[in-house]
Amino acid sequence: MASCSISSAVGHHWCVNLSRRCSILSRRHFTPVSRQTSLTFYGRHGVSRRTSVSGFSLKLSRSFSLSSSNSCNFPDALGLHDFMPKASSTITEPGVSDSHLDLPPSDVVSRGRIYHETYGCQMNVNDMEIVISIMKKAGYTEVVEVPESAEIIFINTCAIRDNAEQRVWQRLNYFWFLKRQWKSNVATGRSESKHPPKVVVLGCMAERLKEKILDADKMVDVVCGPDAYRDLPRLLEDVDAGHKGVNTLLSLEETYADIKPVRIAKNSISAFVSIMRGCNNMCSFCIVPFTRGRERSRPVESIVREVAELSNEGVKEVTLLGQNVNSYNDTSKLEEVDSGVNWKYSDGFSSMCKVKKMGVRFSDLLDRLAVEFPEMRFRYTSPHPKEFPDELLYVMRDRYNICNSIHLPAQSGSSAVLERMRRGYTREAYLDLVEKIRTIVPDMGITSDFISGFCGETEQDHEETLSLVKAVGYDMAYMFAYSMREKTHAHRNYVDDVPDDVKQRRLAELIETFRENTGACFDSRIGLTELVLVEGENRRAPETELIGKSDRGHRVSFVKVPVPDRLNNHISRIPVASDFVEVQISRSTRASLHGKALAITSLSSFYRDMNEQPVAYADRA
Fold this sequence. Notes:
By secondary structure, the chain is α/β, with parallel strands linked by helices. Helices cover about 30% and strands about 20% of the residues. About 50% of the residues are buried. The N terminus is likely disordered.
């Protein structure tokens, strides 16, 4: 994966936020609406401007973007044709509605109840919502909370780390038990399914280990890769006919742009929107290019429609997703496409994959979304450091509703290790980029990924990584011990020569170094007034406290008391989930902030007031 955030090939992982391990997965879902409007917009410098949304019109359509716009040359790598027999996908015509998905349950006879589990990154959560949409269209309309009540069990998998795969195998063993002992399970009341459940393995592990999974003593009925989800209803019919259902073909076109995901988390205030799929970077440790295929971007208009529907549903924060999200490049239906020669990378960064055609870039998409939806916050993950041209940083500075938070996966602080990883930059170039980011947007929060014990890593390389952590001062980091994955460049060319005990020692030292340095990041927020999007009750004190997320992504808790509602004549009330609340920070830990709620407000009002009043707000310029 471009950034390989949460996707570096690794063993034990730690998500330090700080004192807690990585908790994965929020949920989401979406679609349509385009409009022409004129908006008053307040930049971080307090400049009021009027922006015509229609001025962005580029004659885009919902048709799929062609990944032929990218040309890659990997002389010593497996070609994607080795994993991609001629694939085809059924594409719904533009404008065709999925309105039947909105029918009440009584109008559709369910063909079976679905249970699902998802492992891995946010992209897998988004994929599961696409799968549920496809299955509902095919008549599988009911989703249950426990596998014992399901006729179809989906397990969406991650192939990035060995630990993730082992957890999946453990679950598959239990699902196999539900199948094998179905009659006795029903008789004893353990199971309520109407027939032995069909077990379906989805995602990256399905593509990587399809032969092993299918040979596992009839444990699994269907194996379906990330680009073949439209084929699931047919694959289940094949199982009914006595065959194994298998489709792990990769596609150069599939983006699922025409499919409206079915949101897993109901009444959520935040959501994920997938804008591109695949990765061209071929980092030596990463399996993603071989399980997710080459990069292809969704048409801009389909993304705008999806975000518009989310806005209408009350969603207040959208995270744009992609394996290499900031390499977004929509060339679909443009009358004129610029040469890829004009594609700009971050200063000092390079790429093995050259862009052939340049269309709408990530900065263009982000700017349009920020202008059209001024009361919605935008984040994105997971980027690659090479794709931060100045234009993107200036958009983030000028649009108040683009969060001051960048995930900047370093992976290592050693230039020698970075070269073996084929990351396309040196330690010095990375530090120069950090300096530029904080020059353009001084209050930018930066998070990262690190791998301990990559092939050939020496003690000196490890020390350089520790010193990078100290030099940058990260808000949060995902840290892993390296585990080699088959098919990768490292598997074919390097030796996994760092002993496991050394990997674990270095990982522990890395985590401790991070913890020692992150306190200053949180302490610097004390005394500032942060805009917090309320997510709900603080689970540690549900009766007395609420919790939410700040612009930089910090967890902020505050006492549940009535405060003036500036959107409703300053009438006092207790904030609820989805409210934006001004919170004055009074104390910090190495993982969270606590403060006093001042008022309920809106995104645009907060930043307008910030620019007009001499108050100690979090700096946006």
